[in-house]
Design a protein that fits this description.
The protein contains 23 helices and nine strands. It is 53% helix and 10% strand. It folds into three domains: 147 residues, no CATH class; 145 residues, GAF domain (Beta-Lactamase, 2-Layer Sandwich), CATH 3.30.450; 189 residues, Hypothetical protein af1432 (Orthogonal Bundle). The chain is elongated. The N and C termini lie far apart (73 Å). By secondary structure, it is an alpha+beta fold. A hairpin with a 2-residue loop joins β8 and β9. Bound molecules: fe (ii) ion. Fe (ii) ion binds next to loops.
C-alpha cells in the first residue's frame, strides 16, 4: 500500500512551516527531496543537503519510540519530531531549521558545501530571513506540534481510499497463497514461497517463520526452527525471541509485525515481517492484517501437510507390511524390497528426477516383486539350480505383479516399474525382451537397485559379496544389463542408509528362534 498522488499529503503542512522559517524533511534517506522549493530557498536547500539528511537520519535512529525530543544533529541544525501516523503521512518526517548561532560556526560551511552552494551567500540570505535562535526555538516546537495535530485530523478523513488499497493488497496475497496451495508444493517450498510473497506484498526487507514441535519436524528445520528470507536466521531468531509471547498478531514499534501460526489449540509457530522499505516505511494495522492472513493460511497448509504425511506413512507402512508377508516365504530375501525401494529412490533423486517421480519409483521399488505371491513356495525356497519349468514360473512374477496392481487407479504411475524391472538394456531380459529406452525409466532404475541388492545381501547359497567386487561387476554390466546413463547416478548414491538397513535385516538371520521357525 502506498500513499501516492501528484501532490504530497503533507504539502500544505510543509508550506505552513516554511512561512515559520522551518522545513519539513523526510528522515528516510531514500525518500529524496519530497517538497519542491524555488531555487533561491536557501533554508530548504541546506536542510535537505546530503550532510543534513545523513545527520538527521542518525539522530532519528536513536530516538526512543514515544519519547522523541527536539535535538541538534549538527551544531545549530535544530530538528523537532513530528507526530503524524507514518501510514497517513507517507513516511516519517522531522521539522528542521538552522538557528541563528549556526551562522557563526562551521555548520553553514559544511551544509553549503554538501548542497553545492556558496557559504557566504547562504549565510547572508539566512541572516536576512530572521532565523530562530536557540532560546526561542522551543516555541517553534510547540507550533509544529499544533500544526501536526490538525494535519493528522485532516489526513484521517482521507483514510477511506487507503483502506481500499489495503483490502486489495490482502486479496492479492490471498490469491497468491491459494495458487501456491493448489500447486501442491512440498511444505518447505510452500513456506519459502509464502515468505517471499509476504515480503513482496508488504514491501519489507525481511520475513521469517519460527516453527516449533511437530511443524519443525515436518519442515525438518534446524537453526532453532527458523526459516528466514532477507535476513540471517540467527538475527531473525534474536528478534523473534525478544518479541515474547503474543496472543494473535501485533505491530511492534513501526518496524515489525508478527502473527502466531495457530491451528485450533496448537501453536505451530510465529510469522514475522520487518523493516518496511516502501511507502512510508511504517508497519500499521494493515500490514498486521496481511501477516495474519498469511499466518492463518500457513497454519491450514502445515496442518494438512502433517495429515498428509501421516497418511502417507501409514500407506507406505501398510505396503511394507504386505511385502514383508510375501517375503516371509523366503527368509533369505527378507528386507530385499525395502532395500530396493530405498536404493531406487536414491538413484532417482541423484539423477535429478522430479520429487513426484522419485516418490513413484520408491513405491514401485517397494512392490516390484509383489507378483512372487503367485510363485509356489517350493520354487521360491528351492536351494540349488532351478529347472526350466521352475524358471518359467519365476519369470512370470513381473506380469503377475502388474495384474495384481493394475485395477487400483492410484497405482497407475508405478505399474511400469513393476512390470518391466527384469528387462535388460540389451533386450535379453524377461518377460517381454524389450530394450534401451523402450524400457520405462522407473524399471531401468529398479533393475539396477534390484541386482545390486541381490549381489550385496546374504542368500541361500552364499554370503554377501565384497563391496568392491560388487561395484566392479555393476560397472561391467553398464550398457548390457543396465542403462549406463542411470548407472552413473547409482555410483553417486551414498550407501550408508542402505548398509544400515541391510545389517538390520541380516541380523535376523542369526536369530536362533527364527532359524527354528
Ligand atoms: Fe523381481
Amino acid at each position: 500500500m502506498t500513499v501516492s498522488s501528484a501532490v504530497h499529503p503533507l504539502q500544505q503542512l510543509s508550506a505552513s512551516l516554511r512561512d515559520a522559517e522551518a522545513v519539513l524533511v523526510p528522515t528516510d534517506l531514500a525518500a529524496g527531496d519530497v517538497f519542491p522549493a524555488p531555487p533561491g530557498d536557501m533554508l530548504h536547500a541546506l536542510c535537505n543537503s546530503p550532510a543534513s539528511r545523513a545527520a538527521i537520519a542518525r539522530t532519528v535512529a536513536n530516538w526512543v519510540p514515544g519519547a522523541e525530543q527536539p535535538a541538534e544533529p549538527l551544531h545549530g541544525l535544530f530538528i523537532m519530531p513530528v507526530s503524524l501516523p507514518r501510514t497517513l503521512a507517507g513516511g516519517r518526517f522531522v521539522v528542521a531549521t538552522v538557528l541563528s548561532n549556526a551562522l557563526e560556526c562551521e555548520t553553514i560551511e559544511l551544509l553549503s558545501q554538501s548542497a553545492s552552494l556558496d557559504a557566504r551567500l547562504a549565510r547572508s540570505i539566512l541572516a536576512a530571513g530572521n532565523p530562530w535562535d536557540r532560546r526561542t526555538a522551543m516555541r517553534l516546537s510547540r507550533i509544529v506540534t499544533a500544526l501536526a495535530n490538525s494535519e493528522s485530523e485532516r489526513l484521517a478523513s482521507m483514510d477511506a481510499g487507503i483502506q481500499l488499497s489495503a483490502a486489495w493488497e490482502e486479496l492479492h496475497l490471498l490469491h497468491s497463497i491459494s495458487a501456491e496451495m493448489a500447486l501442491g508444493a512440498s511444505p518447505m517450498r510452500f513456506v519459502t514461497n509464502i515468505l517471499a510473497e509476504v515480503r513482496n506484498t508488504i514491501g519489507c526487507r525481511w520475513t521469517a517463520l519460527r516453527v516449533n514441535g511437530p511443524a519443525a519436524q515436518l519442515l525438518n528445520v534446524s537453526n532453532g526452527g527458523i526459516i528466514a528470507e532477507g535476513i540471517e536466521p540467527v538475527a531473525a531468531r534474536r528478534i523473534l525471541d525478544a518479541v515474547g509471547g503474543i496472543a494473535k498478531s501485533s505491530v511492534v514499534g513501526e518496524d515489525l509485525v508478527v502473527s502466531t501460526v495457530r491451528r485450533d489449540a496448537d501453536a505451530l509457530g510465529l510469522l514475522a515481517a520487518g523493516d518496511r522499505v516502501v511507502g512510508n516505511g511504517a508497519m500499521s494495522s494493515f500490514e498486521r492484517t496481511l501477516i495474519e492472513t498469511a499466518a492463518s493460511n500457513l497454519a491450514v497448509f502445515l496442518d494438512n501437510a502433517r495429515l498428509y504425511r501421516d497418511l502417507d506413512a501409514m500407506f507406505l507402512g501398510a505396503l511394507a507390511a504386505l511385502v514383508s508377508a510375501i517375503e516371509a516365504k523366503d527368509p533369505y530375501t527378507r528386507g530385499h524390497s525395502q532395500r530396493v525401494a530405498l536404493l531406487s529412490r536414491d538413484i532417482a533423486a541423484a539423477a535429478g528426477m522430479p520429487e513426484a517421480v522419485v516418490k513413484q519409483i520408491h513405491i514401485a521399488g517397494l512392490v516390484h516383486d509383489i507378483g512372487k505371491i503367485g510363485v509356489p513356495e517350493i520354487v521360491l525356497r528351492k536351494q540349488g539350480r532351478l529347472d526350466d519349468a521352475e524358471y518359467e514360473l519365476i519369470k512370470q512374477h513381473p506380469e503377475t505383479g502388474f495384474r495384481i496392481l493394475r485395477d487400483i487407479p492410484q497405482f497407475a504411475p508405478i505399474l511400469d516399474g513393476v512390470r518391466f524391472h527384469h528387462e535388460r538394456f540389451d533386450g535379453h531380459g524377461y518377460p517381454h525382451g524389450i530394450s534401451g529406452e523402450d524400457i520405462p525409466l522407473p524399471a531401468r532404475v529398479i533393475a539396477i537397485a534390484d541386482t545390486f541388492d541381490a549381489m550385496s545381501s546374504t542368500r541361500t547359497y552364499r554370503t554377501a559379496r565384497d563391496r568392491g567386487d560388487v561395484l566392479g561387476e555393476m560397472a561391467r554390466l553398464g550398457g548390457t544389463q543396465f542403462d549406463p546413463a542411470i548407472l552413473k547416478h547409482f555410483f553417486r548414491v551414498d550407501l550408508t542408509e542402505y548398509d544400515a538397513m541391510n545389517a538390520a535385516h541380516g541380523a535376523g538371520l542369526n536369530d536362533p528362534w527364527r532359524k527354528a521357525a
